[in-house]
Design goal:
Elements (H helix, E strand, L loop, with lengths): L7 E7 L4 E2 L3 E4 L10 E2 L5 E10 L5 E10 L6 E8 L4 E8 L6 E8 L3 E3 L2 E4 L4 E8 L5 E11 L3 E12 L4 E2 L3 E4 L4 E8 L6 E7 L5 E3 L7 E4 L4 E8 L7 E10 L3 E12 L7 E6 L4 E8 L6 E11 L2 E4 L9 E3 L5 E4 L4 E8 L6 E10 L4 E12 L7 E6 L4 E7 L13 E8 L7 H10 E5 L3 E2 L6 E7 L5 E11 L4 E11 L5 E6 L6 E7 L7 E7 L6 E4 L2 E4 L7 E7 L8 E8 L4 E9 L36 H17 L5 H17 L5
Parallel strand pairs: 7-14, 15-23, 16-23, 24-32, 33-40, 41-48
Antiparallel strand pairs: 1-3, 1-5, 2-4, 5-6, 8-12, 9-11, 9-13, 10-12, 13-14, 17-21, 18-20, 18-22, 19-21, 22-23, 25-30, 26-27, 26-29, 26-31, 28-30, 31-32, 34-38, 35-37, 35-39, 36-38, 39-40, 42-46, 43-45, 43-47, 44-46, 47-48
Length: 671
């Protein structure tokens, strides 16, 4: 509307895209007219802007515009189908209708959809846009694909997504000795950002199952966790193929299905049982046979013994046989999975090695399960302990003579050959200690042959500990024709030399710090802990524990702080940085800054010198000099005494006492 008394021409301006209309309009005085504005949006959504009508003098009238544009009809509706955890590729053609290059923005939405976020086209070019549908969650869902360009407009495709159950995956056939488990590994991933509980279903739990499955037949997976799980097969027959189907199911992530098959093979000899004892001393062991078959079987147990090339059968006590069976009955009938315990006694009669086997024959299958036996005759353990001592981080070399007690030769001209083995502590909790010993302890026999029974073997010991340690190990000398001797080594590595001296200076109630970098000298990084040997509150170390960087990497930063509370003597502490294989030691010296007496200028104008007494005016009156300080002291003492005596003087007090005595005398009774 034109409010003026004359006709006015208005210029039309707008910030909205893709609009059209008259550029100028003329309105008569005190009149109004309608203005037609045409919109041609190229994409759905909301648009906000304004339209202004500007007169020649700069005044204007404006109107706010808010457009809600419906999205265009979709170009096509596509149905995409893929198996869980597999990928399907989809290709969409797209064309640039303009004579200039352009870039389409791509908006791809939907579970399991993966593709580029833009596509670049040359003038009048037609190209193919590819994306992947790889579902991790079962079921049906919807998505969309949207191409957008400011000039070319918007193109939308509706996507119908279907995730189907996967095909059954067949694992390679298991092969194992009857009664012995065989394993294969499968990989399971949780695609969700929450924990899931997989239900485990197997059609034959007697022969197949998962190793880590719980008693409730479930497996728990943390969010986005990927884990390898072992599948086992336990055959209970020979030559028969056994099959099963294994399923891992969850309502949202779908299922994993595996086809399993396995076959049992005839038994082979098991690992040998090692028994050791002294001459004429019994020791025992136990062989456990479990019926691996799915039915009752009758078994027969026998024993075979060999020594010096001679062979013995049976295994009853007596004669020169070193192994004995302690079974009351040699024939037994066992139910499926029932276990027969077979006790074995080893009692050597000579300083030789013995071998043998426990044979369990299954009559129905006509097969024999063989459990080998190895018997070693030991000499009495030497009561003498070989002590090896050294400072940590030093090389200690020593040659030790070993006396082989009760060594016998078959003839005066015979020779005997020897070998050795080192037995570490068997405590599983001392794994780091065992690794340390294997690194720092080297032993070897200087001679492996003796020509006389009274000769001694020489053992060279090299002990190079990188940290303090006190432990033991056993060196076992083995005679190749039979017999062994056990010697104990007591290893003691004391505190190493100081690596460095670090000085820190701080004033009381303040803190000063020193930092340095440290790398692990051995390959790889290592966990460490840092502490002070002394119990001190003035020194602190940070961090107290962590990972020590490997050689060649950025060193681990160690910070030492000193916080004294008052002045005193210099203090010191010993800092230890310890890994499972090495130790560093530092002497930390704490000191204080030098104290300087403050210099203060006196504000007095004059001071008395040392000769002030001689400058006093001399006494010219002839009267004795008065000691004012002494008179004042006497006056004070006298005043205190008078207060104690009720304010009387000394003469008054004496008179008062005499009068009181006279009164008491006058009042005495007369007889």
């Amino acid at each position: 509307r034109n409010e003026k008394r004359s006709a006015s021409t208005f210029k039309v301006e707008s910030d909205l895209p893709n609009i059209s209309g008259e550029a100028r309009i003329t309105i008569p005085a005190n009149s109004s007219r309608q203005y037609e504005l045409k919109f041609k949006p190229i994409a759905g959504g909301e648009l906000k802007g304004s339209v202004s009508f500007v007169m020649q003098d700069g005044s204007y009238v404006w109107h706010a515009v808010h457009l809600k544009v419906k999205p265009p009809a979709h170009v096509a509706e596509l149905t995409i189908q893929a198996e869980l955890r597999k990928a399907a590729q989809v290709e969409i053609p797209i064309m640039n209708p303009l004579k200039e290059g352009m870039v389409f923005e791509v908006d791809l939405k939907g579970d399991g959809l993966h593709g580029d976020s833009f596509v670049r086209l040359k003038p009048n070019e037609q190209a193919i846009y590819s994306f992947i549908f790889s579902p991790m969650v079962s079921g049906e869902s919807e998505g969309f694909l949207r191409f957008y360009n400011d000039k070319a407009g918007e193109y939308v495709y509706v996507l119908k997504l279907k995730a189907t159950s996967p095909e059954t995956e067949a694992l390679p056939q298991f092969e194992s000795i009857v009664g012995v488990k065989a394993y294969q590994t499968i990989t399971i991933s949780n695609p969700l950002e929450r924990s899931v509980l997989l239900q485990v279903k197997c059609s034959d739990l007697d022969h197949f199952n998962l190793e880590d499955v719980g008693s409730d037949a479930t497996l728990k997976f943390e969010p986005l966790e990927t884990r390898e799980i072992r599948v086992w097969f336990l055959p209970d027959d020979i030559g028969e193929v056994q099959t099963a189907q294994l399923q891992l199911v969850e309502s949202e992530v779908g299922e994993w299905v595996y086809s399993l098959s396995g076959v049992g093979k005839e038994p082979v000899p098991y690992n040998a049982m090692d028994l050791r004892s002294q001459v004429s001393v019994e020791t025992s062991g136990m062989v456990r046979f479990r019926n691996p078959f799915g039915y009752d079987v009758e078994v027969h147990v026998s024993l075979t013994v060999e020594a010096k090339g001679q062979r013995y059968s049976g295994g009853r006590r007596g004669g020169k046989k070193a192994f004995f069976l302690q079974l009351k009955k040699r024939r037994e009938t066992l139910r499926p999975n029932e276990t027969l315990q077979i006790p074995i006694v080893f009692c050597p009669s000579q300083m030789i090695n013995y071998t043998g086997a426990v044979n369990v024959r299954v009559k129905k299958k006509n097969i024999t399960f063989v459990y080998p036996l190895v018997g070693r005759t030991e000499a009495m353990k030497s009561p003498k302990i070989i002590r090896i001592a050294s400072k940590a981080r030093r090389v200690h070399k020593e040659i030790v003579e070993l006396n082989l007690k009760d060594l016998r030769f078959p003839s005066p001209t015979a020779t005997e050959e020897f070998e050795y083995e080192v037995k570490m502590p068997e405590d599983p909790s001392q794994r780091d200690l065992i690794q340390l010993l294997r690194t720092c302890l080297k032993v070897e026999l200087l001679e492996t042959t003796l020509t006389a029974p009274d000769a001694k073997l020489k053992l060279r010991v090299r002990f190079e500990p990188l940290r303090p340690v006190e432990t033991y190990c056993d060196v076992i000398v083995l005679k190749k024709t039979g017999g062994c001797w056990n010697f104990r080594l007591l290893l003691n590595a004391t505190q190493p030399e100081i690596d460095d001296v670090i000085h820190i200076r701080a004033a009381p109630s303040t803190t000063s710090s020193v930092a340095f970098g440290l790398n692990n000298m051995l390959p790889g990084s290592a966990e460490f802990k840092a502490y002070f040997i002394e119990d001190t509150e003035m020194f602190r170390v940070s961090p107290r524990k962590g990972m020590l960087a490997a050689e060649g990497e950025d060193p681990t930063r160690i910070v030492i702080s000193f916080s004294p509370q008052e002045y005193g003597k210099p203090v010191s502490a010993t800092l230890v940085i310890l890994t499972n294989m090495m130790q560093w030691t530092y002497d930390i010296q704490g000191d204080y800054p030098r104290y300087t007496t403050p210099q203060v200028e006196s504000r007095l104008r004059e001071t008395l010198g040392v000769d002030w007494g001689s400058r006093l005016r001399p006494n010219t009156t002839g009267r004795p000099k008065r000691n004012a300080i002494r008179d004042n002291i006497k006056a004070v003492r006298g005043s205190m005494q008078r207060k104690a005596m009720g304010g009387r003087s000394r003469m008054q007090t004496e008179r008062w006492f005499r009068e009181m005595e006279q009164r008491e005398v006058n009042n005495l009774p007369r007889y």
